[in-house]
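assembly run, all chains below
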Amino acid sequence: MTAPRVFFNFNITPDSHTLSAYQSRGGYQALAKALKEMQPLDVENEVKASGLRGRGGAGFAAGVKWSFVNKKSPVIYLCCNADEGEPGTYKDRWIFEHSPHQLIEGMVLASYALHVRHAVIYIRGEFDLPWRRLLEALKEAKEAGYLGENILGSGYSCDIIPHQGGGAYVCGEESSLISSMEGFKGYPKNKPPFPAVKGLYDAPTVINNVETLANVPWIISNGAAAYAEMGTEKNKGTKIFGVSGHVVNPHLLELELGYPLKKVIYEDCGGILGGKALKAVIPGGSSSPILKASEIETLTLDIESVAAAGSMLGSGAIIVIAEGTCMVRLLQVLTRFYAHESCGQCTPCREGTSWMNKIVTRISQGKGRKGDIESLESITKGIMGNTVCALGDAAAMPVVNFVKKYRDEFEYFIEHGRSMNDGRLEI
Amino acid sequence: MSCLTDKFDQLASTYPPEMRSSLVLPLLHLMQKEKKHLSEGDAIFIANYLGVPAMQVKEALTWYTMLYRQPVGKHVIKICRTIACSLLGAERLINYLEAKLGIKAGETTADGLFTLIAVECLASCGTAPAMQINDTYHEQLTEAKIDQILKELS
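ok done. output:
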């Protein structure tokens, strides 16, 4: 069976990312069609009807988000969130490297729907090839009249400004992204007001993930109904999943939402390294709660199913962990990450992430103390729900779930001063 | 500085005037490309150029991890230590690099050729373990591959 594809529908060659290659695949026909035949509201309604939900992690309905914007506002911004930083996630990179025009076309369509004159792409500062491919593609698109003044003679004008981040995980959080985009350190802001009401430079701002926006041309070309035929009842379309960790063949897959997770691991990715048993899966990026092997038996990859199993589909970053891995040391890798990336604004997160990391590090060095597990549990309670942005909860969640599901490993490490699994991370 | 100001002007022309304050980070990046590392004076120079408070740029300079406030080597090696890379040997490779270069992560070799930094997720999880040297990504690393890469740079 050949599954329908929005992204992985062409062979990658040395020039498959170029404008001419994109045009030969039908690129920019959706834009031409929309500018000629559709009003901005028609584009918004089509996206709304498709059921497309945000692909960055939160899963909010894209068209509904667009509908919150007051289209009569004198200035409206669109920000493409390309600050791909959730550990395990590497899908947006692919879009920049191999289909940058698909994103540009999606952004011009979204900008047209939203009455946006200047759209922004906030891209990870570290990205090299994605950045160069984006700059090339923007130049090509502008020269071809798909960007800039009077696009395709329609009278509609739109520019896209590429903007590099500075290496901060938190800037993937939308209000932090706005602070950073405005030229400040990336402190998140309290919501409400939401960006759709008051965002970049206080103007209504829509912030969508790269993959979300890159779906739009397909929806306009093929229609909302065709898009809504893919996926599950509540979670439409396809999604790019990135598998990493202890599998034989880690790679990106574009799958219809609702695809079985076990099939991804054992068939598409060739099973576990060294023929080991599966120990656990982190299904949606490092902030999503870890699931034990027994919890993924019948799990399908859509927002509702993963939530029912007690985790999150998130960004679609599936991290696979083999039997024999030391969960104490693995958690230490995560607590170190969140302690490093906490922005410093809210006390519970700034102090709590460092404190949790200190305790988990101590345990993983064989110096754990009686009461450490209880301290960790109490710190997570102090963080969750008490911070401006979701990074606090994201940092606490792995600790809560690792300690809950692998408590014996933590107790063993504290009691014996050594790992139950020889401290292994590599298999 | 006039040559630098020309470059500033060129970059500034790509943003609409109402977004002038957005240029803080792009100008810091641009200046770092020219000078390798940045000082408080550089932040003040950018603040004056943009007409924004000096503190705003100084805060940005000290907050973003990609901006260096200390001299770095000719080649800055950023090796990922986050989850996917950890599961495939990040720690082993960091130890290998430290031994090979004779420095600890965070330090620069005496000849000024290499700076080694252990960084968080580079979004190379499907091609882990990964590192970045200056701009270039190097993925699916092994000890032999590291030897080869460093040999070409030395």
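Chain A has three domains: 19-228, 238-322, 327-416.

Residues 238-322 of chain A form a domain with the Ubiquitin-like (UB roll) fold (CATH 3.10.20.600).

not gonna interpret more than that til we talk
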